Amino acid sequence: MQVLDKTQLKNYGLGLNAVDPEVFDIIKREHQRQKDNIELIASANFVSRAVLEATGSILTNKVAEGYPGRRYFSGCENIDELENLAIARAKELFGAAHANLEPYTGSQANQAVYLTVLKPGDRILGMDLGHGGHLSHGAKFTMTGKHYDCHFYQVDPDTERLDYDRILTQAKDIRPKLIIAGASAYPRIIDFQSFREIADEVGAYLLADIAHISGLVAAGLHPSPFPHAHFVTTSTQKTMGGPRSGIILLGEHSAPEFARKIDSAVFPGVQGAVHVHAIAAKAVMLKEAMSPNFVAYQRQNLENSRILAADLMARGFRLVSGGTDNHLILLDLTEKGITGKEAENRLASVRITVNKNLLPYDSQKPTVCSGIRVGTSAITTRGFGSEEIHCIAELIDKMLSSEPTVNTIAKVQDEVSRLCGLHPHIDSIYEQNGHKFALQSPYQLQN
Ligand code: DSN
User: Fold this and answer.
1) What pTM does this model have?
2) How many domains does the chain have?
3) What ligand 1 atom has the least distance to the C-alpha of 134?
4) Ligand 1 in reach of 134 Cβ (< 6 A)
5) What is the DSSP letter of 358?
6) Residue 361 C-alpha to ligand 1 middle, in angstroms?
7) Which residues contact 109 (CB under 8 A, 6 or more apart)?
8) Residue 23 pLDDT exceeds 50
9) 68 alpha carbon to ligand 1 midpoint, in Å?
10) Residue 26 forms part of a structural domain
11) N or C end: fewer C-beta atoms under 10 angstroms in the chain?
């Protein structure tokens, strides 16, 4: 029988640098990039040290399928306790009657909802990808788009906001079985009550995908999808500031009918074994989100977004819908004479990270786009406040309002370095607090 020899066993105790210098080096360079860049991608954030430790912990070794008390493998007593803890925290934080913490991502959470209430070919009505919706809401080249009959609502061409009367008219025409309320690039409040009224009118279920705004919802700074939505899904790494993962929540009225069905749809419906390390990280994230600091953080996030929007408009930028109610803004660059792709590249050259984004009724291809999406969650976590936001608006203006000279680029790069220096990357904050890192932390890789 083949067993590990002594050398192989010894290698199990070695650090990443010794075992795989190539991967070690890539992580180190990514660490440096995160330190040196101003991160403005709206879905990005930095996890706390505690979340990082849970993510990188030995929990990744444990295989578990099923749910607490109903596992297909033994040795799950600690894992059951962990998952029950995470479930209880999720229910408490969001005021839900049932929570499933197992989805690997927000997309899988959505797929589990589809599997619960839809048959292949059933109709979905979701937000158009080009108007701020998400791929998993039925884009034609995705599994959802191929399996279901997907239709899309758009924002009003004048206000660039959701028009609930138009959506109702469309829903009456299409008669969907499921309506999805939720977006990846919509800077305004979503009225879940109106969506529920539309769903009731046409006999549809309502899914609220709050992936982008779940942190704001948890902090009470965006209207809750409860009690309106039959199903609520979210990813956990955006405004929540947690690991890359997902959650499904059910309210009082839908839990009795759907709790068991949703659980079966997640496992074994669309997923296999539980990512136990991610469950732990989500539990920690949920605990962090219950602290008053979390509410203060989300308030600052909204304030930073509002200031950035006002500053950019004052500098002649057009914002989709004329502003923002949440953590993100959409800049229309048409009048500035550059595409979203060019803007993304220009800002990347000075270490400001954004993504090109389609705008409502965009004439450009998705690989080019007429705009960029800018979000404040990551820099708010890093400690940026109003003074730094004013500076960032000025830097964006310098880079996008006209072709920057070599001199301008150098000056902007210096200013980015200054701002990043004012607010060191989150790992430096841990160091300042006197913490030493666990072996598994990529922020302090050891031999
Ligand atoms: N949903 C994508 C986004 O909003 O950026 C990625 O998570």
Assistant:
1) 0.94
2) 2
3) 1
4) yes
5) -
6) 20
7) 100, 103, 233, 234, 235, 246, 247, 248, 266
8) yes
9) 30
10) no
11) N
Decide whether any atom of ligand 1 lies within 6 Å of the 339 Cβ.
no
Atom index in ligand 1 nearest the CA of residue 211 equals: 1
User: Following DSSP, what letter does each residue of 244-276 receive, concatenated?
Assistant: S-EEEEE-TTTHHHHHHHHHHIIIIII--S--H
Which of 232, 259, 289 finishes a domain?
Answer: 289
Share of residues in the chain with pLDDT > 90 (%) = 90
Query: Which residue's C-alpha comes closest to atom 4 of ligand 1?
Result: 184
Domain-terminating residue out of 232, 260, 289: 289
**184 within ligand 1 shell (Cβ under 6 A):** yes
Read off the tokens for 223: 């209207």
Distance 176 CA to ligand 1 centre (A): 25
297 shares a domain with 181: no
For residue 43 and ligand 1, the question of a CB distance below 6 A is answered with yes
State which of 134, 353, 358 you would mutate to test the pocket of ligand 1, scoring each by most atoms of that ligand within 8 A of its C-beta.
134
Range with the poorest average pLDDT among 76-85, 228-237, 308-317, 425-434: 425-434
Whole-Å CA distances, 13 to 18, 26, 354: 10, 21, 39
Residues 263 and 330 in one domain: no
Residue 372 belongs to a domain with what CATH number?
3.90.1150.10
137 lines ligand 1 (CB under 6 A): no
Residue 167 lies in a domain: yes
Instruction: Say yes or no: 284 and 301 in one domain.
Output: no
Q: Judging by DSSP bridges, how do beta strands 178-182 and 205-209 pair with one another?
A: parallel
Residues 100, 231 share a domain? yes
Whichever domain contains 177, its CATH number is 3.40.640.10
Among 306, 346, 347, 344, which Cα is nearest to 328's?
Answer: 306
Q: What's the domain range around 284?
A: 58-289
Give the closest residue to 111 by CA, choosing from 129, 132, 133, 136. 136
Residue 29: inside a domain, yes or no? no
Which atom of ligand 1 lies closest to the CA of 212? 4
How confident is the model over 129-148, as a mean pLDDT? 96
Q: Of the residues 238, 240, 358, 377, which should be mutated to test ligand 1's pocket, given the most ligand atoms within 8 Å of the CB?
A: 238
Residues 201 and 331 in one domain: no
pLDDT digits (tens, 9 = 90+) for 74-84: 999 999 999 99
For residue 14, tell me if it sits in a domain.
no
Which single residue is written with the structure tokens 């004048």? 158
pLDDT band at 1 (very low <50, low <70, confident <90, very high): low
